[in-house]
Specification:
heterodimer, A: about 110 residues, six-stranded mixed sheet, globular, B: about 110 residues, mainly beta, four-stranded antiparallel sheet, about 0% helix
Amino acid sequence: GENVEQHPSTLSVQEGDSAVIKCTYSDSASNYFPWYKQELGKRPQLIIDIRSNVGEKKDQRIAVTLNKTAKHFSLHITETQPEDSAVYFCAACDGSSNTGKLIFGQGTTLQVKP
Amino acid sequence: EAGVTQFPSHSVIEKGQTVTLRCDPISGHDNLYWYRRVMGKEIKFLLHFVKESKQDESGMPNNRFLAERTGGTYSTLKVQPAELEDSGVYFCASSQDRNRAFFGQGTRLTVV
């Protein structure tokens, strides 16, 4: 089955700097890769997603890149702000089952220092 | 538009007791998923409904867990009898197209 590895587990940056979180997946049939942000005590919120037929997607300060050959995808946050502090989860959608089942990475705790 | 709603937000029960968690998906979303996050680890899939039918329950830990979605609207997840290792945060998510899934705020279950 699919396996998703996420690094780093914690990341601390200074406000205004960039943050990069990386994930690898094992199943080449996976075709959809969402990123979720979970602030303390709140629900995981979908912040950006990318499908396997696209290499890069950007939405204001966040971007996601996908390398299908290497089976890895990354989240890039530019000009970080204190409100970006949260736990970020990457996920891969199990492409072989076509059920929408998500396999998550272990999460990255991002701290943005003012 | 109302989001995915889960009840209760917290539950503390003793080992051996029964707990029922409820999830109300976004209206019109046929796909409903249950996930669980245990002790700060990754969020793990439990099962998937399409309307009232179970499509995939490969992630259910054992037969102490029972999920239902009668009528294809809200869903319940019952744990009976609860064990210590069942503690964690239980998330429900719903989607229209089996891709973009929207999560509820979760139920934090503590078994003591």
